[in-house]
Amino acid sequence: MAKVKLTRGGVYLARLDPAKGAEVGKLRPVALLTDQALLDTEPPQVFICPLSRHSKSTYQALHLKLPPRDGLEVKSYALAEHCRSISIRRIRSERLARLDADEIGEIIHRLQRLIGA
């Protein structure tokens, strides 16, 4: 695949396999949370938040509901407890959609809740 221009808040398909234990895997949409200034340097790794069509009520405080838009065709949930760093080589698509600044802030707020900040 040709080099993709990555943007903060961009939603891309990423290959998250192999998954271990309760980690989410497979080819799925992810939202990039890495700061744009760092993305502009084309780092080898990026920090992402995986998206899913499903959310469990147990994790309601950590999941952010995202409405469909552009290439993100179904209601999705940002899974803060699964945020992690991945190689940019795992990114497998052009940008499907983009989260707005408030949505990015809400994911970060949920990450802070997760780590007790």
Name the features.
7-stranded antiparallel β-sheet, 29% strand, alpha+beta, 2 helices, 117 residues, SH3 type barrels
SSE layout and pairings?
Elements: E1 10-15, E2 27-32, H1 36-39, E3 45-52, E4 63-66, E5 76-79, E6 84-87, E7 97-98, H2 101-115
What can you tell me about this protein's structure?
This protein is an alpha+beta fold. It has a single domain (10-115), classed as SH3 type barrels (Roll), CATH 2.30.30. Helices cover 16% and strands 29% of the residues. It contains two helices and seven strands. The protein has helices at 36-39, 101-115, and strands at 10-15, 27-32, 45-52, 63-66, 76-79, 84-87, 97-98. Strands 1, 2, 3, 4, 5, 6 and 7 form a seven-stranded antiparallel beta sheet that branches. The termini are far apart. The model has no long low-confidence stretch (mean pLDDT 92).
Structure summary:
With about 120 residues, this protein is of the alpha+beta class. The chain has helices at about 35-40, 100-115, and strands at about 10-15, 25-30, 45-50, 65, 75-80, 85, 95-100.
**Which CATH architecture would you pick?**
Roll
Radius of gyration: 13 Å
Termini separation = 38 Å
What's the helix count? 2
Mean pLDDT: 92
Number of strands: 7
CATH topology: SH3 type barrels
Q: Could you give the order of the helices and strands?
A: EEHEEEEEH
**Stretches with pLDDT under 50, minimum 5 residues:** none
- Fraction in helix: 10-25%
Roughly what fraction of the amino acids lie in strands?
A: 25-35%
Per CATH, the class reads Mainly Beta
